[in-house]
Amino acid sequence: MTIGEQHDTGATRWMRGAVAAFYVALTITNALTLTGSARTAMTLLAAVTAALLALAALPAADRPRLRWLAGGALGFLPVLDSVAQVAVTGQLHFTTLLMLALVGVGAAVPSRRVAAAATLGGLSGWAAAVAVRPELRTAELSHYAVQLVIAALLAAILHETVSRRQRQLRDARDEVAAVAERFTSLFHASPAGVGIADEHGRFVAVNPALCVLAGLSGDQLVGSSVRPYLDGEGEKRFVHPDGTERWAWLTVGHSSGGDGSWMLLQLQDITDRRRAEAAVRESDRLLAAVSAAARRIRTGEDARSTIIEAVRDLAEADNVTLLEPNPSGAEMVATGVAGADVLGTRVPLDGTSMISRVYRDREPIFLSDPAQDPRVSPALLKLVEGRSMLWQPVLVDGKAMAVLAVGWKRRVETVSDHRARAVALLADETALALDHERLLNRLEQMAFTDTLTGLPNRRAWQRRLAELMTQDRPLTVAIADLDHFKRYNDTYGHNAGDDLLHRSATAFAAELGPGDAIARWGGEEFVIALSGRTPDEAAALLERVRRAMPDAETCSIGYAVWHGGESSEQLLERADQALYTAKHGGRDAVCGASAPVTL
């Protein structure tokens, strides 16, 4: 097994272990939150899932006879557990677990066939559960169905992205290996004598040219001391056993690391000195730079700074800038910089600048003298002190996502093959990193946002309320419920009902301040948290929220003031009781809850 394969296998086992840990937490959650036979069944199923996933995370699971267990457990058990959670409990909101399971399978299962089968099985199982259990066919069914389909699509996209990234990394490792092979060939075929000495000062490798210069065989040199060759760098005289003389120029290099100080001795004929030195130096430097860049990218460090520094190293540039389009798409913004003070600089995309052209045409451009080109901004050249510039597009599936601007403070007549290849290779890595980051951000946003209203969902609300309850400030929590919403749906249709929910959410949010919070609780209910307001101020604000109801429709609001001694569930329960009072008192009203009873 190669180092790259060991890394991929270790990462896969780590993902299996992470999913197993999640199901350990789910086992505990089921035991604490569910009741009756559902608690017994789901706790047992989650525990079995966690145990099998933990077994699949062991190194022994990678043996050929057990690989079916690792693939099957990781691919099908989480989906089966999530479908069972919905079917057994009869609660539609557990569809969220199935969404997370599908996305997790898409990211963690290497087999496309297993991932696809697990996804189809999850969708089919969920549909069967909905068909069998009437209580699942609620007003929210269509929303969860749409979100489930979107989660399945995201899982497919994420699976393909991860697979593609792994292929790209394998290609990068192959290229590093190819460079190493070329270096080895150059080491043995070099006309200059080259020897490598370990931390004890003894030769561990010599090439034929060094044997010719020293007049000794490779067996005689390997294991011998390098001290006779280290009496000063420069021209050295060698007297062979047959009395002939050879003159060479000695260069000594040192490399200090965990294994001690190693030395590279280079002895070359004076006539071929410059050409041989340049070849060895360039090959050695390219190998070291590509290896370092690939290693740092695989460790998961910040993609922008890592790749920018690698580009600067490989291209021997003075500065590198990464420019990405802003959310409106009207400008390019410098989001990463090395070697220049231009972070945050904006470049319009509707102009004729070089950055705009490269982003639009998706083709790299190098100018040895950019000051003579009218498309290059003189202000930009002044900021980066650029005498020569290279602009490289960052592409994903043929679409430009960013531009790398590489600058030199000295005149560079041409970009050599190794520089251009290095910049293009790292531009591909930049594209993969940015695309992966974009997908993760989108997934995180979906997990905490209600797709119909655009408000935070219940999960985000619980996190926000927990934060507010840690602050030493007055806190009021309210529940707003649209009056006669079912009748409105029956009269005007569900599309009109969805539109009313969306406009109500917008109107309610417009009345709140920057320290307040609102989320969709479910159905036609919204939860509101008012932080830092007295009870009278909170009641007045909630009256404004009630009056903001659009289309001459009405809503009822119940609220409770937190006194610091009750949990979030107890606080919401009091607000819900106040809402019940407002509903049964004629609706279209704001009603406050009484203070909690203290024993």
Can you describe this structure?
The structure is a single chain. Helix content is 54%, strand content 18%. The chain is an alpha+beta fold. A 6-stranded antiparallel β-sheet has the order 8-7-6-11-10-9. It has a 5-stranded antiparallel β-sheet with strand order 2-1-5-4-3. Strands 13-14-12-15-16 form a 5-stranded mixed β-sheet, with helices on both faces. Helix 16 packs antiparallel against helix 17. The N terminus is likely disordered.
Provide tags for this entry:
599 residues, five-stranded antiparallel β-sheet
Question: Would you spell out the secondary-structure blueprint of this structure?
Answer:
Layout: H1 3-33, H2 36-56, H3 67-89, H4 95-108, H5 112-132, H6 141-189, E1 193-197, E2 203-206, H7 208-214, H8 218-221, E3 234-239, E4 245-257, E5 260-269, H9 273-298, H10 303-314, E6 319-325, E7 331-338, E8 346-348, H11 354-361, E9 365-367, H12 378-384, E10 388-396, E11 399-408, H13 417-447, H14 458-468, E12 475-482, H15 485-492, H16 494-511, E13 517-522, E14 525-531, H17 535-547, E15 555-561, H18 568-584, E16 590-592
Parallel strand pairs: 15-16
Antiparallel strand pairs: 1-2, 1-5, 3-4, 4-5, 6-7, 6-11, 7-8, 9-10, 10-11, 12-14, 12-15, 13-14
Helix pairs in contact: 1-2, 2-3, 3-4, 3-5, 4-5, 4-6, 5-6, 6-9, 6-13, 9-10, 9-13, 10-13, 15-16, 16-17
